[in-house]
Design brief:
Elements: E1 2-8, E2 14-18, E3 21-23, E4 26-27, E5 30-31, E6 41-46, H1 62-78, H2 95-104, H3 115-124, H4 126-136, H5 140-143, H6 154-168, H7 178-195
Antiparallel strand pairs: 1-2, 1-6, 2-3, 4-5
Helix pairs in contact: 2-3, 4-7, 6-7
């Protein structure tokens, strides 16, 4: 909390001061000068303004910086890939594609891995990848993998919801964040159905 100093100057004006700020004050929509006498000195406690600016790197703790870097790396990994689908058996995927897939899922890749080992790793991370994909989506369209084209068809929304929910439902996906992902899918479904049209 900070202190706001209010002083009636006796000439019909009132000053308000907090730090370097000055301004006019209203109490119950009435100018303050109608509420105080000349030479009155009032002190009111007011909440400090919340700092809404993002923290600079110099004011962050090491753990906050690490978390921020992790978030930026995740954003970069998913940029342009939020509507991707899991490859059926990963045959035909390049080493770069498999490596990116595992990293998007939150895993790490050893340089010494063979293509076969990469494929096995990708298969093991498939459930986690789908949960991460949903949670990294920025729009409802992306969550349900719908084309952003105005009002979607109800049948398309229902079909997309069934597919997405089958992939992240906690009964089918053992990821620790599957419940959160399922909530996100359900929210996207409700939002899309509210704007959907029949064929």
């Amino acid at each position: 909390e900070g202190k706001l100093i209010l002083t009636s100057l006796g000439d019909g004006s009132t000053t308000a001061r907090t730090g370097a700020e000055t301004g006019h004050i209203l109490i119950d929509d009435m100018p303050l000068r109608t509420c105080v006498r000349a030479n009155d000195h009032l002190t009111l406690k007011i909440p400090e303004k919340e700092n809404t600016r993002p923290q600079s790197a110099s004011t962050m703790t090491s753990s906050q910086r690490a978390e921020r870097m992790k978030q930026l790396e995740a954003d970069a990994l998913w940029r342009g890939h939020r509507k991707d689908t899991v490859h059926a058996n990963f045959d035909g995927c390049t080493t770069a594609q498999l490596t990116k897939f595992v990293k998007q899922a939150g895993g790490s890749v050893e340089d010494s891995w063979t293509p076969e080992e990469l494929i096995e790793a990708a298969k093991g991370w498939a459930g986690e990848w789908e949960v991460n994909r949903v949670l990294m989506c920025q729009t409802d369209w992306e969550v349900l993998r719908l084309a952003d084209s105005g009002a979607p068809l109800m049948s398309e929304v229902k079909s997309a919801f069934r597919k997405a929910s089958m992939q992240v439902h906690p009964d089918k996906n053992q990821s620790t964040h599957s419940t959160e992902a399922m909530r996100r899918v359900s929210k996207a479904y409700s939002a899309m159905m509210s704007r959907a049209v029949t064929a």
